[in-house]
Amino acid sequence: MPIVSRRMDGPQDHHEQRAGIAYLDTRTLGAQIRDIATGPGSAFGILALAGLTLAVPALTAFTLPIAGAFTAYVLTRPLVLPLRLPANARLKDRNNPVAHPRRQGVEIPGPATGDWFLGWDDNTGQQLWLSNDDMAMHTILPGSTGWGKSQTIYSLLCNALAQGSGCMIVDGKGSNNLVFSVKMMARRWGREADVRVINMLVSSGDRKSHTWGAFSGVNPEGLSELLLTIFLPEDKSGGGGSASYFRDRADSLIRAMSYVWVWMRDHAGIPITSESIRASLSTIQALIDLVGTRSDPSEKRVFSYYDLASQRLMTMPLPEAFPLSLLDPVRDYVNETGGFSSGKGGVDSQDKVREQHSYVVGGFARAFTQMGSTLGHIFRCGLPGVDFHDIFYNRRILVVVLPSLENHPETNASLGRMTITAQRYALAPALGTSLEGDYVDLVVNRPSSAPTVYPIVHDEVGMFLTRGLDVMMAQARELNVGITISFQEVGTMYAALGKDRVVPLLGNPKLKIFGQIEDSAPTKEWLESTGGTMQVSVLPGYESSPTLGVYSGVDRADIREVKRISWSDVQSLRNGQAIILFRGKRIYTRLFYAGIKPAGYNRLHPLLTLHTVPAGRDHPIARAIRGGQDIPGRAAHLAPAASLEVIHDRMARIVDTDATVREDIHALFGAELPRADTQPFAALFQSLGAYTSPKTDLPVTMLAPKGNVALYEAMVALEALNCDAQGQTRSRVASVLNTLARTTVRRKGQ
């Protein structure tokens, strides 16, 4: 039976000029010999001379001087690696030039500074090292699914943990495997207790996560930016009309109320939660009760908030020390809403006022539900377990898992943008605001200063890219923070932020690690433009032999401009292979693999659940401690409660027994404990007289212009350990320092 063969008009594999066969090495003979002598093949020269001497002993007098000179050259040649020398080499690094101390414009080799191990050069087998300063210039890591981005990220982060630093990773399409992997990394260096996890995966019903109060430590400007990121995401439609009008009204309301919320948080102990924000904004009556009237300062003003302990809405009168000027923008908003007038009666009789206010805050409902219900296990907290200031400045390990499959892409992107905004405002204080003082104290010894860089990884950044990331990358190097952004293709980033903003964002990082990429449209164009071009010598063509039909190259070479990174090379990369660009160098790399394989049992380290107590509602014992009445005489002490005595007795009996942990727990707490009749802690104060509560609403006192700011801040930090409200503490310390300054001036005058 005849078989019809398939017709193929296109080129086949054997037609393709592979392996750079068309490129020619046109270097001089001396350059090629020098390259061999300084490379891994330098030993072959000595072996060849030794073989020649054994074969012809008469040539010893000729080969011995050559061998000696060659050996001396090889042994005294400077050690140069493709990037940096490792710091433990303790040699001068020609790739780290520094200015000559006495000759201007002259550079000399600097010390070896390589601290981060990336892998090996595939062509020479040499190690690839970078310094902490290099990593602070940021990294991009593009690669398609399955190439091994996650393992590459883990290997990079292992460098940071090995140096005692921490890390932060935000995964736009995370799973619980990420948490297991990071915990395995931390376990290698004994850092499990430093791991914090913000787990937004809730579809399985297991809501295990550390709490995060995104609004707990930011200033009013930072709070307003965070809230605008959550409640008013960027409008990509560019529409105007009534939608734009109410959007601007919502913007002004949030910015005005941010100053009120921050003051109540710092001075009255009211935590800023989504429920408290909702209580303040949902009805315009709450705003009217808050602002009162401008003409009557003594009018009773009421602040609405949500009490986490009682799980219900509460109100409290504004403290006397509250600056009424903070209410002016809120009052202006109320008066400009639907023509509100207190002379027209209550708000119930002014339908237009309520209607327009509902248009302003109506768009907040989805964010309120997301933060209060869906992610309430994370955001409903008084004092959070995750504080970004603590994460950055104490070098802890944070994992943020965004739910890519559970949420709408816009909702997921909003959560990611909120995370990036929180990162920005957590780093902002390290830039410093004081312009007067010692340079070492204010600049050199910043809170972010450390011998190692702190890495932040944004994996699958295209899913939550926001405009603030480019600003953070521009300033993060000064704060000793290195940012790594990982993505599959640039098309998603173009759609999220626009090509004009994404191109400079991707052009800023110095280290570029290209993995295997499949997108042949915008990603290929961006990659080839990033790699640039180079001049090479190529074979212009072939000549055929008329008798044998064999092709041979012509006896000349042409110079042509080609792409430095071949698209076929990028597509053929396998796991662990990459092409690195750094400071104009292109290196075909075999990446370092740390072997992070999650296994075993994992658990989140629980943190203490703390709550702030609103002003005036704290326990008398706490007020006694703040009042300095915590040093009673011996007569005030009582014996411990009966329950403690029984527990200690049971512990003494099980210490020497060989039993399981479960059996020990049952022996310790299985039987009923006697009821406690006394409170040992409260008994410390029973012999004291009646406690007189100090006045809490003190007038605000500012430090004199010529006061010692450094001493003032140090004393405020010390006094804050007593859990006093920050505003009262600052006023009290400022009053003391101002009095001391006036006394000193009078003494000098005498």
TrEMBL record:
Name the keywords, alphabetized: DNA-binding, Membrane, Plasmid, Transmembrane, Transmembrane helix
Task: Name the residues that span the membrane.
Answer: 44-75
Keyword tRNA-binding: yes or no? no
Cite the GO molecular-function annotations of the record: DNA binding
Q: Residue ranges of the Type IV secretion system coupling protein TraD DNA-binding domain?
A: 135-257
Under the heading Pfam families, the entry gives:
TrwB_AAD_bind
Q: Which domain of life is it from?
A: Bacteria
Q: Which residues form a coiled coil?
A: none
InterPro entries to which the protein is assigned, alphabetical: P-loop_NTPase, T4SS_component, T4SS_TraD_DNA-bd
Quote the protein name from its UniProt record: Type IV secretion system DNA-binding domain-containing protein
Q: Which organism is it from?
A: Acetobacter vaccinii
